[in-house]
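Students often ask what a holo structure prediction actually looks like on paper. The answer is less mysterious than it sounds. You provide the chain, you provide the ligand, and the output is a string of discrete structure tokens encoding the 3D arrangement of the protein together with aspartic acid.
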Amino acid sequence: MSWTLMIHGGAGRIERARTSPEADAAVRAALGVALDAGGAVLADGGGALDAVEAAVRVLEDDPHFNAGRGAALTASGTAELDAAVMDGRAKAAGAVARVSFTRSPVALARAVMERSPHVFLAGIGADAFSRESGCAQVDNGWFVTDERRANLAELLARGADAYDVDMKYGTVGAVARDADGHVAAATSTGGVTGKRWGRVGDSPVIGAGTWADDRGCAVSCTGAGEFFLRVGVAHAIDARVRLLGEAPAVAIDAVLAEVTELGGTGGVIVVGRDGEAAWRFTTPGMNRAIRTSDGATRVALYGDEG
Ligand code: ASP
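The corresponding structure tokens follow.
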């Protein structure tokens, strides 16, 4: 049986004219390394859950994306990280919000799923569970990069809202369908620049930014979390695929239309139980890539790359 791995590194105002050749090359290279990591799992007969975690861990460590190292910063200049995983086999799920010291938030989300009786842990308690379960720890400063400091300074200087300034969502995510026909999804993010008051977006919320169900599809989102939360984007897409029999691209378009109607923007990746995959976005670009068991690989950033 064939397998499919699709990943994203955020949607937004990702345009040729605004991207240096170095950044373009670095993002493409990182997406390629993430595909290699997740694809190797699937090529070895491994499961979709292991593949999506492997791919997302690569992107978390890469400072070009808003997850792990290089995460968007809170108004006080710290990193508060959110992540989720879901395994379509038994609809098992794990999620964390506002964690500060875990090097790989997606690995912690998986630990919540596999080693706690819970689905969603947040803040201080999630940090404590992370230490107790042996996840790799780092200082909060490890996540903070000069570029993100500059983004925050600009936002604060303008007194602007995160969505006004850059509209560049760098959240990372992966969806996979393995050779046994199981699907899984993972998403990891720093949220939005300048966030306050313990703000949490859609990414770690099961059914909003992340979802997987073997009867339908696996979904990972990036975009303006406030709108994705209100539409329940990931679950709504799966429901359309599973109950209406829509193709992934058709289901994504229908649900993103609801996001647009509310005033939000973003993008989504989906892989169905039959391996049919689709990516769609309402922004100028989305960092994205796909690899399939027949050896085909595609990496794209801008809207005009199809
Ligand atoms: N969806 C994320 C959030 O609202 C942001 C992103 O996609 O970069 O937290």
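Residues 4-305 form a domain with the Glutamine Phosphoribosylpyrophosphate, subunit 1, domain 1 fold (CATH 3.60.20.30).
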